[in-house]
Write a structure and sequence with these properties.
The complex is a heterodimer of chains A (821) and B (214). Chain A contains 33 helices and 27 strands. Chain A has 821 residues and is α/β, with parallel strands linked by helices. A 7-stranded parallel β-sheet of chain A has the order 3-4-2-5-6-1-7, with helices on both faces. With 214 residues, chain B is an alpha/beta fold. In chain B, the strands form 2 sheets. In chain B, strands 8, 9, 10, 11, 12, 13, 14, 15 and 16 form a 9-stranded mixed β-sheet that branches. A 7-stranded mixed β-sheet of chain B has the order 1-2-3-4-5-6-7. Helices cover 18% and strands 34% of the residues of chain B. The longest helix of chain B is centred in the first third of the chain and has 15 residues. The chains are: A alpha/beta (821), B alpha/beta (214). The interface between A and B is large, with 57 and 56 residues. β27 of chain A pairs parallel with β17 of chain B, so a sheet runs across the interface.
């Protein structure tokens, strides 16, 4: 069949749906059929699935002209999605096309939700298209004979690549692709990405820098222009609007008319806790909304999530309170309005959320921004500028993630086994490991086989063995089983499933929240008040509770940072306050009384000023620095300053950060003049001082948790599975201490340090910030009491510590709380 | 090295920064929760805990034996973490060099056959009553006795001005019992909340410090 005939099949199908292919879709068809790889930049709801699924099918038809009668068995294409929730949508779309053109193709889903039985059936006979997640793909690589499974695959599509790119799941994907390039005989690799700042780099990472695949590739941009309108919700009575807070419930009544006016509204919150609270409060204050509103977040069980998604499509819901769980994929035509509660922390995310509304061509997307505290209104006006200028941030890919490499090599050793000489060039061809040295690779191999770098006489380390022909293989069934269970846990905290005592699955919850509860305690989950009965085998058993008050889980992951783009917009926005009043946006005008108060106690810094405030409260001596560079930079800068000051005298700091600045709090007064005289903002010895500050804080310790789990150093078990891991319980914290003392040059231990500030140091973000500060005049204000700017920072409870005092000296000044009678 | 001397039932006990307690009048050294073999157990199961940490337990044992020169060394349970492994060989070698009499109060982790212990001339029992004192692995309350135990790995959370907080391992003393901190290097701690009449002694690498309450 020639090219024209193939295209006719597709175009006929399109016109049967009374659709017309977009230019970007046709471009993708042509490029794919020419055998090219590529990255497609297209937003959700634009028909991106058909841009790639159609040519995959056409390619098969080209090779098998008798396609409708003679079916060739085996896996032909793999579709990777970062979110399980999206797999159903993709299945429906892809099935629709093949069914209607009379191609007997099967589409299968394989994710963490897929049953054992179905997995086994898939293993015997793979579907033609497999929709799966990066973790499940790794699991396939961990099963024997995976090379045969993937041999005939000629297309792999990585959907929402931008979501994976800046994460370790992206690294997992890079490694899997490096293997598939070898074992699949004629593989085409395609990514689909929303707009990000570094699209070209996204393609490099996907295909491998300097690779043949990259040379034979294209970047296709959908260029669908959409009008986005940002509306800020400004409180009528600014004076009573809080200076801090993160829930935004003060403005609850303001969203009611918006919800009532539009067909369907999505309310995006930043954390699942916030999502739960908003849902509950909306119902409490407006019982008439019962049945018309729903909630959607990642911890809620799959059935409920799918039900909510379907209900949005059927237009049977007025509003859904959700988290980033609805950021991606899933096309919801009826959604007319978006409300963003609290700062979205990034332009790309904000645009993506805005894009969830007004899906019909020509319609504009409307997004309302609801500030949770006064200062956040400045973010609203900065965001408007960002949307106008389309200033979208980069997603920064990871480099040298040795933990993921350890996991990957173990995966290969579990299934077919591997030969280092064969695998090393593949690993080195990825973006993440482009600079890996032979020595580092040798270190990893030793780590896998010896658990150290030299063989000790009494040692009994057992993981990967080397067979006589040099093949690396896992022989222990227990090791293999634990490894398979561990693969899915690349994403942070241990999760437990929540079930009713009588049966019935409710969802999953992070272990650390549940560990704070005692049986009998009542907490809110999925909009219900539940009483904890007991925790058994990674399951949380609960009963319904009639009690009104409850604890609400606050999930991790709520801590994001402004990108450098957002930070600079925010600074510019703030500077307008000190300049001409006519340029000031209505959001900032609404903040006038706060700025006046700030000016009374301190100053509102202008473009050439760097503000430091000091004051004393009951808590101790506060020093607040305002670089306005985003949370990540402030974490690094705060630790650096704390470290440098701690060299001047023995002192202990509690450090808090937000997107505007950071606070050093101590029980001793800092001599700020001495700090300024010693030029502590210098970029000299920046890297080594930062490194030393890390040793003094706990930041690397927290990073190490992920590293230890991914590299298989700690075994966390897995939801729903009872694992006999007696005597193997240990915390990554304990492990960190042991490494610190006995093996500080361990690559995985060091990785925790490198990762902590990696994103700040990338492209010299920290250096640039410090250069900028050095060009400013430092204004130090000794204030009488906390200023409006300082308020959100000093009330933050999530804090870092740094001390140059002796532990014993600190203990002697501290006290323990007695049990309350 | 700063130890703390305390008096219980007119007897003198010296608390050491490693977490052991020495009964002066009887020359008995009490050590809880060493968890020997734990690192090897992890390594055997594919978790590469630094093996150089293994020797540290023995070094610490040598250090305190040298410091107190006790007639009797009494382990308050969880001496060996799991099934037998090569650390047992190191342990046997260490025992042969040791001149003190050794008693093990078996803990929940001590699943190795008592025959192996008796081969090393270690006496194993479930508890030990001596004068008005009762030594056990699990904390107990028994009339007329002061109980000294382990098992819990007690720790305490401290707070101070400037929103400072930290937690340290500790000796946790109640009216009729005292729980020793875990002696082993690769062991965690469990935070306890004190009551008014309790006494808590935090440990650092070089000091035992009495904790003040608020």
């Amino acid at each position: 069949m020639n090219k024209k005939e193939l295209h006719t099949i597709a175009e006929n199908w399109f016109s049967n749906q009374s659709w017309k292919p977009f230019p970007f879709q046709k471009q993708a068809w042509i490029a794919f059929l020419q055998g090219k790889n590529g990255l497609l930049n297209a937003p959700t709801g634009s028909g991106k699935t058909y841009a790639l699924w159609i040519p995959i099918v056409l390619e098969y038809i080209k090779r098998n002209p008798k396609y409708s009668t003679k079916h060739k068995k085996g896996l032909k294409a793999v579709w990777i999605t970062p979110l399980r929730a999206l797999s159903v949508e993709i299945k429906q779309a892809t099935e629709r096309f093949v069914d209607e053109i009379g191609l007997p193709f099967t589409v299968g889903i394989r994710t963490g939700d897929t049953s054992q039985k179905e997995r086994a059936a898939q293993k015997r006979s793979m579907p033609d298209l497999l929709i799966t997640t990066p973790e499940s793909l790794q699991l396939l690589l961990a099963s024997k004979g995976y090379d045969k499974t993937f041999k005939e695959v000629n297309a792999i599509v990585i959907d929402e690549w931008h979501e994976l790119l800046g994460s370790k799941r992206g690294v997992q994907m890079e490694l899997a692709l490096s293997r598939l390039k070898t074992i699949s005989l004629s593989l085409r690799i395609w990514g689909i990405s929303a707009t990000i700042g570094n699209l070209e780099q996204a393609r490099d990472v996907l295909l491998g820098p300097d690779s043949k695949a990259l040379q034979n590739s294209v970047l296709i941009k959908a260029n669908i222009r959409k009008k986005i309108t940002v509306k800020s919700i400004i409180p009528k009575k600014m004076e009573t609007f809080p200076w801090r807070g993160h829930l935004g419930l003060h403005l609850l009544e303001e969203v009611i008319p918006i919800i009532k006016k539009s067909k369907t509204t999505l309310l995006f919150t930043n954390t699942r806790a916030q999502c739960e609270i908003w849902f509950q409060k909306l119902l409490e204050k407006h019982p008439e909304l019962a049945g018309e509103i729903a909630m959607h977040h990642g911890s809620i069980n799959k059935e409920t999530r799918l039900w909510v998604e379907q209900a949005i499509r059927n237009e049977s819901l007025k509003a859904v309170v959700c988290t980033s769980s609805l950021d991606l994929g899933v096309d919801f035509a009826p959604v007319e309005t978006i409300i963003q509660i609290g700062g979205p922390k990034g332009v790309a995310r904000f645009l993506q959320r805005a894009g969830r509304s007004g899906h019909q061509p020509g319609k504009e997307s409307v997004i309302h921004f609801l500030p949770t505290h006064a200062i956040e209104l400045t973010e609203a006006s900065a965001l408007q500028k960002a949307v106008q200028n389309k200033k979208v941030e980069d997603r920064i890919p990871y480099l040298n993630s040795f933990d993921v490499l350890v996991q990957y090599l173990t995966t290969l050793a579990v299934s077919n086994g591997f030969y280092p000489d064969e695998i090393f060039p593949e690993v080195k061809s990825t973006f993440c490991f482009q600079s890996i040295t032979q020595e580092q690779f040798r270190w990893i191999l030793n780590f896998l086989t010896l658990g150290s770098q030299s063989l000790q006489s009494y040692d009994e380390y057992k993981k990967v063995s080397i067979e006589t022909d040099g093949k690396f293989k896992v022989h222990s069934r227990a090791v293999a089983m634990r490894h398979r269970l561990q693969i899915g846990t690349i994403v942070s905290d241990a999760v437990l499933t929540i079930k009713y005592l009588k049966g019935g699955f409710l969802g999953s919850i992070e272990e650390w929240f549940i560990s704070k509860l005692k049986p009998g305690d009542v907490f809110t989950f999925a909009g219900r008040n539940l009483e904890l009965f007991k925790i058994k085998n990674m399951q949380v058993l609960v009963k319904k509770s009639k009690q009104k008050t409850s604890k609400i889980p606050s999930w991790m992951g709520g801590r994001m940072s402004f990108s450098s783009e957002m930070s600079s917009l925010l600074r510019e926005e703030l500077y307008t306050v000190t300049q001409t009043y006519s340029k000031v946006s209505k959001e900032l005008k609404a903040l006038t009384h706060i700025f006046n108060r700030q000016k009374k106690e301190s100053i509102v810094p202008g473009p050439n000023q760097f503000l430091i405030e000091t004051f004393k409260t009951r808590d101790g001596f506060h020093a607040i620095f305002y670089p306005f560079e985003g949370r990540f930079v402030h974490e690094a800068l705060g630790s650096l300053m704390a470290y440098r000051i701690s060299l001047l005298l023995p002192i202990t700091f509690s450090i808090a950060f937000n997107d505007y600045g950071f606070e050093l709090l101590s029980d001793q007064q800092i001599d700020m003049q001495q700090v300024l005289d010693n030029n502590l903002f210098t970029t000299q010895d920046l890297k080594s001082d930062l490194q030393k500050s890390l040793n003094a804080t706990e930041m690397a310790r927290r990073k190490f948790r992920d590293v230890a789990v991914i590299a298989g150093l700690v075994f966390t078990g897995y939801p729903n599975k009872v694992i006999k891991s007696k005597h193997l319980q240990s915390s990554s914290q304990l492990l960190f201490d042991v490494f610190k003392e006995y093996e500080p040059n361990n690559l995985l231990y060091q990785q925790a340090f490198i990762e902590t500030f990696e994103h700040q140091l990338e492209e010299g973000r920290l250096q640039l910030a410090m250069d900028r500060i050095s060009s400013q005049t430092i204004v130090w204000k000794a204030c009488k009491k906390p200023t409006p700017f300082s308020f959100p920072i000093i009330t933050d409870r999530l804090r870092e510590k740094l001390s140059s005092e002796k532990l014993a000296d600190r203990i002697k000044r501290m006290t323990a709380q007695l049990e309350k009678a | 090295m700063k130890t703390q001397e305390i008096t219980i039932n007119d007897q003198t006990f010296i608390l050491h920064p490693t977490g052991c307690a020495y009964w002066k009048e009887k020359s008995i050294l009490l050590i809880a929760d060493v968890h020997l073999g734990k690192i090897t157990h992890f390594r055997k199961n594919g978790s590469a805990v630094p093996e150089s940490a293994i020797l540290q337990n023995f070094n610490r044992l040598d250090e305190v034996l040298h410091y107190f020169q006790p007639k009797t060394l009494c382990f308050l349970g969880d001496l060996f973490h799991s099934y037998i492994n090569n650390e047992w060989i190191l342990f046997s070698e260490w025992i042969r060099k040791t001149t003190s009499k050794i008693i093990l109060i078996a803990g929940n982790h001590d699943i190795i056959s008592p025959l192996r212990y008796s081969a090393l001339k270690i006496q194993v029992s479930n508890e030990w009553q001596i004068d008005s004192f009762l030594f056990t692995h699990h904390p107990e309350e028994r009339q007329l006795f002061f109980n000294i135990s382990g098992h819990i790995h007690p720790g305490i959370r401290l707070q101070g001005a400037g929103k400072q907080s930290l937690s340290v391992s500790c000796f946790f003393k109640r009216k009729y019992q005292m729980i020793l901190p875990a002696f082993g290097t690769f062991t965690g701690k469990h935070i306890l909340i004190p009551q008014k009449e309790d006494e808590v002694f935090g440990i650092t690498t070089a000091e035992v410090i009495k904790i003040t309450f608020r």
